[in-house]
Design a protein that fits this description.
- Chains A, B: It catalyses: (R)-malate + A = oxaloacetate + AH2.
- Chains A, B: It comes from Plectus sambesii.
- Chains A, B: Its cofactor is FAD.
- Chains A, B: Keywords: FAD, Flavoprotein, Oxidoreductase.
- Two copies of one chain form a homodimer.
- The first copy, chain A, has about 500 residues and is of the alpha+beta class.
- The first copy, chain A, folds into three domains: about 220 residues, Uridine Diphospho-n-acetylenolpyruvylglucosamine Reductase, domain 3; about 120 residues, Alpha-Beta Plaits (2-Layer Sandwich); about 90 residues, Alpha-Beta Plaits (2-Layer Sandwich), CATH 3.30.70.
- Helix content of chain A is about 30%, strand content about 20%.
- Chain A is built from 15 helices and 19 strands.
- The longest helix of chain A is centred in the C-terminal third of the chain and has 17 residues.
- The N and C termini of chain A lie far apart (about 55 Å).
């Protein structure tokens, strides 16, 4: 076991692969079954002229080449046919746009960084795209309470960098941080790799400014950015994870978190998933408040990294499960002492068959590179069925085993890695090419198994178009009806982000 | 400066005083201005018989003596005239009750532990009380992910004790914990003394089971208790802090937090509030992840404690502001080292004029006793106007100064203590007896000043009856209208907890 010092570590965010890849759900919108254009008005020249008066000529994109990136999602899974992109710069402009779209019954897709993974941010037919990327002026940060108030169109990484100057950082970090916008993060209910430590966006959002898709383009103002305000309904939280179905988020007030002085990374090998759970228990007890990541890669992930990318495990003893454990704290000396004690305990108890602590930033990056590149390495197999599933830990790896048994030799690999600390598993099934037989073995089996075992078919990515058909699984009829009622309450003409998420 | 060891500390929750006291808002419901009984049906014998069939004889209280405690709030500020208390034991019973009350247009007050401080949990006229205290069977805790799922009628302290057996605790702690019920905590959006460290209930609630006041007594089921589930609207969060206006919470799924192994307490004296803010900045930097309380008592608070209770400050140097700082962590050795370094830094920089670290549990309790008894000591002055206000830190103590100037010699004392770390100030104005002149100087001045300076008139207690008239301050017309719309959406016959919170 190597024990060493780590003075500084570059960001370990899981990088979403930049290259377009073949993977699950390659349906274009026109191929989506049972999907017909809704009874919305079609865009007229008069509408365009009205928008140009509201936003100026630079605020309305009509050229097909300009519009193309807004019509396609980041994974190139979906392609819409919008003929108009609007780029408002102020909340007043967003409000005026929504008022007009309500009056005219024009369908609208709110779009932030367009980095979502479920097709929620692109048009399906000819919806107007309202892009929030020019709503990016306001940035106010008060370092004493650690409260940020900013426009929804600011890029997550830019916010993180600017907070860094004050010794703070954003509580969420995700692979798309260089492109995603904070308003889109909130609308998605994004999780990311810091969730185990800092909690979900519900733990941080204090208030939102939101424009409603109603006759007035009503603006729900942000209200004071206070850590505590217990007057009135906490309505802002309803827009977190609402996937652009209820309103357009134009401003965000939220807490930032102090940047840790010390980040430590270790890798542990375990023989069983039960041992992984025991190690998690020990990590919570011995690492306590400094535990910031608890990621797992199974031996199939390691084999794939080696075969497809030539990347070798940092552990010399092969193990069925590899745990990447990260701490973030305010004292390097204390954090290293805690981590050493924790590693010794795991080895002594026989919970781990091997363990190594990164001794440099470079080494820590090598550890994280295994986890970060897992997504890429498996794509070299040819075709990938990807999943973002939440399960109680007692069923976490049983899903992988059940899928392995079910698909047999139809799959090249059944690989699992994920955020064990959050109960979030990224199960991947690879094959040399798309196979309908494999598809039929997997679906709806995977999602039904998940909900039957108390899990969620979407841990962090949302529902969008990708999982809409499975949305009713595990939901009571009362809940599904209530979602429809809420949708109609906020969006009476159903003009906002139609065809997605809801099965009403 | 004393530096020492502290092995264990008893709960430091701020105790709500058990004795009935004279303080602000002593209006009984019948004296509340402009309040008329709504157009609700009156309870008939047939209703009572129906409820007895649903709940059994023990589930319906009709005797005046039995009902009296349900008609009066904990502070004896309000007294309702309900003639019927219902005690359902299951969600099905709650649903059947609400269905009948909807059909008959009978007004209902949901009541949990009845420990609220704004009159939200007692009837105003003859509303039926639906008490949740017998809905207290389910307790499921999974220690690996640290997830609790339980009935809404369980007492907070009981939950804390039962979690303690697993090495966990509830993330919230408040003075009323021996009587308050978890469902009531959620409905109130309770804060408490651990908020600085663990965040609000939004950071912990994963899912709720809720009964709606509609024609079916619709039950929104709890859904899976997962750390991550991003399918569907996050509607549970709308019921946090909804003050029993939108539905009845019958089950709660939430995260618990690991119990700290080490708790350290220190007191620091500062000459200015600006120095207090600088100390808070240093505490965040040097104590980081272990900082769990940052409380302030001004010199007037200390004088009052001495004069009325004979309690002496633990600091030998008198200071304008006294800071009670607590850390909670997983290693006593590390936590003490961090706290020592922090105290030395504050003294060296001249931010603190004196500082002392508790060396034993008894000493820590003495430190906390000052903070806990502040509320009681000032009551001996005679009459107290109390407040629960949230302000940006730059205005935090300016309110105290503005009030002091405004009331002059009309007040005996103007005292401030509070959770500085959360921006939450408990401003208190005392006099020998109630004075209308003093009242008129204070209101609406205090609340208008607060909202004009970006604050909230209720940081953690809620609105209820007590602050209803000031609810519109600082809110946009769009927000106020939206509250009314949300109310009607969930409660179309407005039968749930009428007369309170909302000004529609």
């Amino acid at each position: 076991m190597m024990i060493g010092r780590l003075t500084q570590r570059a960001s370990c965010a899981l990088r979403i692969e930049a290259r377009r890849c073949k993977s699950t759900a390659p349906l274009t919108s026109t191929q989506l079954p049972n999907l017909k254009r809704g009874d919305y008005s079609s865009l007229t020249d008069a509408d365009v002229q009205h928008f140009e008066r509201l936003l100026g000529a630079g605020g309305v994109l009509r050229d097909e080449t300009d519009i193309a990136p807004y019509n396609t999602d980041w994974m190139s899974w979906y392609r819409g046919r919008s003929r108009c992109v609007l780029l408002p710069r102020t909340v007043e402009e967003v409000s005026a746009v929504m008022k007009h779209c309500f009056d005219r019954r024009l369908a609208v897709v709110p779009q932030s960084g367009n980095t979502g993974l479920v097709g929620a941010s692109v048009p399906v037919f000819d919806e107007i795209v309202v892009s929030m990327r020019r709503l990016n002026k306001r940035f106010d940060f008060d370092p004493i309470p650690g409260i940020l108030q900013c426009d929804a169109g600011l890029v997550l990484e830019e916010l993180d960098t600017r907070l860094g100057e004050f010794g703070y950082m954003m509580p969420l970090d995700l692979g798309a941080k260089g492109s995603c916008l904070i308003g889109g993060n909130v609308a998605t209910g994004a999780g990311g790799v810091r969730l185990l430590r800092y909690g979900s966006l519900h733990a941080h959002v204090l208030a939102l400014e939101v424009v409603l898709p109603d006759k007035d383009g009503t603006v729900l103002e942000c209200g004071p950015a206070l850590r505590k305000d217990n007057t009135g309904f906490h309505e802002s939280h309803l827009f977190i994870g609402s996937e652009g179905q209820l309103g357009l988020i134009t401003q965000v007030a939220m807490t930032a978190v102090p940047k840790p002085n010390s980040v430590q990374v270790a890798m542990l090998g375990c023989d069983s998933f039960l041992d992984c759970c025991k190690v998690l228990g020990d990590a919570k007890r011995l690492l306590g408040e400094i535990l910031s990541s608890f990621e797992m890669m199974d031996s199939e992930t390691m084999r794939c990294l080696k075969e497809n990318h030539g990347r070798h495990n940092v552990l010399s003893t092969p193990a069925a499960f590899n745990l990447l454990i990260e701490t973030s704290g305010s004292s390097q000396e204390h954090d290293q002492a805690k981590l050493n004690k924790f590693l010794e305990s795991c080895l002594e108890k026989g919970l781990a068959v091997d363990g190594v602590l990164a001794t440099s930033v470079e080494q820590a990056n090598t550890f994280w590179a295994l986890r970060e590149n897992a997504t890429l390495a498996l794509m070299d197999d040819g075709y990938v069925f990807k999943h973002d599933i939440s399960l109680p830990l007692k069923h976490y790896y049983r899903l992988t085993e059940a899928v392995r048994e079910r698909v047999g030799s139809l799959a090249k690999r059944v690989i699992t890695y994920g955020h064990v600390g959050d109960g979030n598993t990224h199960l991947n099934v690879t094959a040399s090419e798309f196979s309908q037989e494999l598809y039929d073995r997997l679906y709806p089996f995977v999602y039904e198994w998940t909900t039957q075992h108390g899990g969620s078919i979407s841990a962090e990515h949302g529902v969008g178009l990708l999982k809409k058909r499975y949305m009713p699984l595990g939901k009571s009829p009362a809940h599904l009806a209530q979602y429809g009622r809420l949708k109609r309450f906020y969006d009476p003409r159903l003009i906002l982000n139609p065809y997605k998420m809801l099965t009403m």
